[in-house]
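Per reviewer request, we include the raw input and output of the structure prediction for the construct analysed in the revised manuscript.
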Amino acid sequence: MTLITRIINRTNQRLSTLEVGPREAAESSSKSIEETLYFMLRRIKISLVMLAILILTSLTVTTACGGSDSDTTKREIVFAGLNWDSALIQNGVARYIVENGYGYPTSHVEGATVPLFEGLRKGDIDITMEIWLPNQQAVWDNAIKAGEVIPVGKSLEDNWQNTFLIPDYVAEANPGLKNVEDLKKDEYKSLFVEPDSGGKAVLVGCIAQWACRGINEGQLEAYGLEEHVELRDPGTMAGLNGAIQGAYTKKAPVLFYYWGPTTLSSQLNMVGLEQPPIANCAGADPALGCEIPAAEVLVAMNMDLVEDAPELITFFRSWDWSASNQLAAEGWHADNKDAAGSSDEAYTATAVWYLKNNDAWKAWLPEAELAKVEEALAAK
């Protein structure tokens, strides 16, 4: 076990004694105070662990700079190819910088949230550009405690999610449909019934292996909607988008889950049904029957990569992928992806376009690595 691993594991062990679990908070008469304390301590824990890594990173890099240059072979870095656009676009940009600025070969493994996070824990995946909390809270906390993964940056701070969305034209035509409880009324439930849904409203929800699927299921149970609403798996992001866009094109009713920032959500007027505030749920867990709060979206590494490529931590600590970045890059990708030979080539082309047409990313890199990326872009 290396020095980095030993210190991080010890930091986790020490900080774990400070945790106040959501279950204990729920049982306490001072629930709101203990829940606030729980989340404050969790954020402190993440920050302290990241600080420990940064200190060790500076020591490791300094030692490496003073050593021999005889071993220049760099191993491949595997990214999680999460199957939605914001993650894949961020992958494209990050991979281009890691390859051309830092000299590491990269690849990615495509898939859904659940299996790819397991891959990150085991070391089959090195880095994930989007860990959505609270969607993945339980497994994330377990992986942190086990010393398997570490947060190294933040992403998409301007975000939102909602399980119960309807088109604006449905809301306008049905002014009494305002709250999730209204889906129990035949007058409104019937709007979303399909021929094969047995009289239930159809909710086009999260894909089965996305972490948000558990939130969809928990909310239906907590709101007592299981007898009134059928949760359907769209299978792919394309299937989810197609169901929504198809309904909007026909001005037909549709009840659906979605999130932002995305091109689709910026183009369509979506109305969320009212739900209890997140403060009403123990541990701020929306699956217990509350609205989904704005997520904390993290960039995370497997511990092996922390040891093998510590210089990348400084880069990802500076990563700042805003909603404006995402919408601009996603829009360009949508307009130009058909000209690419493959999906991977399309995301690489999007990365090149973004890097050539924006300057904010230059602040993320040390001078030497920035010069290498700019040289590679100039050759395009």
